[in-house]
Design brief:
alpha/beta, 20% strand, 6-stranded parallel β-sheet, 44% helix, 330 residues
Length: 330
């Protein structure tokens, strides 16, 4: 073999080996959402991809079940464990049901965090709340109360009965309701983060409580469905819809008057932050322990509390004064 041919062969082999090493070094982070097809989580995936592009050696696997069930998520998680991904960042449909599967993932060396909707501590290394639960709880009841100077009946349209974040926010909302003695929370119903079921539940609230003045939906699916139900019932101006939603999905309802105002953090930032955390933990560049700080890129850093939890940012209020500014973003 000629010297030139030997050199070319050696270079080719080295190139293949280097390519294989580069591929092996790619950190695969699975962003597991409550269900596919929900705008909030699709926006979070945009943020995850932004983080991946910034980090440079990350592959995002965006996945989830087709419906908001623990069983569906467990099936997805088992597949990811079999694929030996480097990290799993999950928004849980059930606090406890996912924990054994995720513990098995950690036992196999996979970094596991929860974000948005948490997992029991034994099933994750840390949890990223989108905001402080007391702040969210107070915000959603305040948004309703601000439009009810004389008080009145309000009801809650949540996601699933087992949704960790929803239940926590509603619990904090009920605590904060004491600050608004003329506002009476008459019912809490569950639409399972399905548009059609949420719509029917909102209809049922208005039929069961004819004096209802507001529907509080701390879910991006539920708030849109409730606003549409109010519109279809001809009750714009009688029943105000508020809670947590996406500007892009709520702009029309704000302009129609079905919703006076609502709040949300930026889901793009949330997906970005969860990816950054998962990456730094998977690469052993940070630790998940009380008091530890973890960098989250352009969002700064978080500090874990005694439960290995942290909050990203305060909720932001959207209304007719700013909805056009944000509705084209997310």
């Amino acid at each position: 073999m000629s010297i030139l041919r030997k050199a070319l062969t050696t270079a080719a082999i080295a190139s293949v080996l280097m390519a294989g090493a580069a591929q092996a070094e790619t950190t695969r982070i699975a962003l597991v959402v409550k269900a596919l097809g929900i705008g909030f989580f699709e926006a979070a995936n945009k943020g995850a991809e932004e983080a991946a592009a910034e980090l440079g050696d990350v592959e995002i696997i965006y996945t989830g079940p087709t419906d908001t069930t623990a069983e569906g998520q467990i099936e997805v998680l088992n597949s990811l464990i079999a694929q030996r991904v480097d990290a799993i960042a999950v928004s849980a449909n059930d606090t406890d049901a996912l924990a054994p599967t995720l513990k098995r993932a950690m036992d196999r060396g996979i970094t596991v965090i929860s974000w948005d909707s948490g997992v029991a501590p034994e099933g994750r290394e840390m949890h990223l709340n989108p905001s402080s639960a007391p702040l969210i709880g107070n915000m959603i009841i305040k948004l309703a109360a601000d439009q009810l100077p004389e008080g009145g009946d309000v009801a809650v349209l949540s996601a699933t009965t087992t949704s960790t974040n929803q239940n926590t926010w509603i619990e904090e909302m009920n605590k904060a309701a004491g600050d608004y003695p003329n506002v009476n929370v008459v019912a809490t119903v569950y639409g399972d983060d399905l548009a059609d079921k949420s719509y029917r539940e909102a209809q049922g609230l208005m039929q069961s409580h004819p004096e209802l003045k507001a529907i509080i939906a701390p879910t991006s699916v539920g708030i849109v469905a409730a606003a549409q139900a109010v519109t279809d019932a001809g009750k714009i101006g009688e029943v105000n819809v508020t809670g947590l939603g996406l500007p892009s999905e709520m702009a029309g309802h704000v302009k129609s008057g079905a919703s006076k105002s609502f709040a949300i953090w930026n889901p793009i930032d949330l997906g970005y932050s969860a990816t950054m955390i998962a990456y730094h933990l998977a690469k052993d560049e940070a630790t998940a322990e009380p008091g530890a700080t973890i960098p989250i890129g352009r969002m700064g850093e978080i500090t874990l509390d005694e439960n290995n939890e942290a909050a990203m940012a305060d909720p932001f209020v959207y209304d007719s004064s700013n909805i056009d500014e944000f509705s084209s973003i997310f």
